[in-house]
């Protein structure tokens, strides 16, 4: 296979999965590890991906946000494990805020027997919550169709009337110095408000988001407990150099 053909395959796989391990590329392309490593170096120099420990991840543009449809099958196994981990922090009778997002959606089945009250801006969560007969309040505001989220100043005002034991958020970028970021300033403001109104805040994110920075800042990483996978050990270790940052890995 020609180098350009390998590059095309690598980029297609990363766009589909968000993050991919070196061994997966070796097996898929039937090429040596040294060849794949050179390919990843070249693609990173072209700013088409970023190398992470043991593989590579998608490079995000700061103002670009994938749709819910594009995100729902990326890193699915990691999302399910993160949701299971996140559920261990939820106690019976908690009042919780669930952010819109595909990772947070995976958390809902674990709420069944906890007698929680949920407030959410995620329209994709409503059917699951109704099926499990979980007491739910939906945020009022403007619907953002691409992410199935309710956003805007009305949503912020609505949210401000409530207080939470815990909130669970998705995020697009996590950087030790530049903080938690998301492409949409309106969603950033809603997430920031949820953090302010919660006794404890959790961000659930697969490791492809580590060292990424998008347009609008939500909070410093030290303001939340970060739940992530350990596929990018170097980035996790970099976060942990700050003693104020709390990270739990699956």
What does this structure look like?
Helix content is 36%, strand content 24%. By secondary structure, it is of the alpha/beta class. Strands 6-5-4-9-12-14-15 form a 7-stranded parallel beta sheet, with helices on both faces. Helix 8 runs parallel beside helix 9 (185-196). It is elongated, with a radius of gyration of 18 Å.
Main β-sheet description? 7 strands, parallel
Question: What share of the residues lie within helices?
Answer: 25-40%
Strand pairing plus helix content: what structural class? alpha/beta
Order of helices and strands: HEHHEEHHEHEHEEEHEEEHEEEHE
How is this fold's topology laid out?
Layout: H1 3-17, E1 19-21, H2 22-29, H3 33-45, E2 49-52, E3 55-58, H4 68-71, H5 76-87, E4 95-98, H6 102-105, E5 117-120, H7 126-131, E6 135-138, E7 142-144, E8 149-151, H8 153-159, E9 164-169, E10 173-175, E11 179-182, H9 185-196, E12 198-204, E13 216-219, E14 225-228, H10 233-240, E15 246-249
Parallel strand pairs: 4-5, 4-9, 5-6, 9-12, 12-14, 14-15
Antiparallel strand pairs: 1-3, 2-3, 7-8, 10-11, 11-13
